[in-house]
Design brief:
Elements (H helix, E strand, L loop, with lengths): L1 E5 L3 H12 L3 E5 L3 H9 L3 E3 L2 H6 L7 E4 L6 H8 L8 E4 L5 H12 L4 E8 L1 H7 L1 E6 L2 H14 E10 L3 H29 L6 H8 L8 H13 L15 H11 L5 H12 L6 H14 L8
Amino acid sequence: MRLGYIGLGKMGKNMVKLMLEQGIEIVAFNRSLESVKEVEKDGAIGAYSYEDIFKNLDTDQRIIWLMVPHGAVDQVLTDLKPHLKANDIVIDGGNSNYKDTLRRGKEMEEMDIVYMDAGVSGGPWGARHGACLLIGGDKDVYNLLEPIFQAAAAPDCYQYLGKLGAGHFAKMVHNGIEYGMMQAIGEGMNVIRESDFDFSLKDVARIYNCRSVIESRLVNWLHEGYEKYGEELEDISGEVTHSGEGQWTIETAKEMGLEVPVIEESFNFRVNSKGNPSYTGKVVSMLRNMFGGHDVSKDE
């Protein structure tokens, strides 16, 4: 299969490299030409304009995968519209708000273009070695695209979840849960650190990840982060930034008449950490760096 791929950031570039290795032909485009040239070396067909993308997708039903920040999706779709035709397929693999996905789906439907959503989890490492994909949209189109999803995902780590928007809704909630889990880890390690016992935080993190109830990828990244940055996390910021998905989860839950106090408190902690750094914040920031490659260095 061949698809056009737009967005070669940390996630996109790694995903393209993996899919190429899995036999998917990719026409890759990015605003930064250096990224296009890099994936060309891995076997991608480089596209240096939108015209280049479609010139190299000479099938009756062109497939375009978007891997751009959620705030850029509308502009990219606007730029793509003159090149799209009926029956084409557009997949949004970014962290879009599911409400925006539903709106965009209706706009695309008016042009007889199929819109699909694919929430992607796993960070840059997962994108390179196999991600977790949460997919929404038309089931028949999903069946058609399954070889692509299979190529981008870790073994058996992709799932069709329902109609358009289901993938991004599930990814939104996933990120809200992530907020709460990371906050609990940060708070717990702060308690360990402040206790009267002479703990090695690295050793505690290691044993927590050995068949314990809380064994997880996050706890593994905790251990690896202590090895990388040291237990005091001196170069890590105690202020924690956020990218929006946790807030969307809280707002959506309130619209549904539901309470999500753990997620809400973990989100509020991040907001209130601005100007109020803490060791708990350092742990959460370090985890964000370990799985997502986020810049969490302490401001001088």
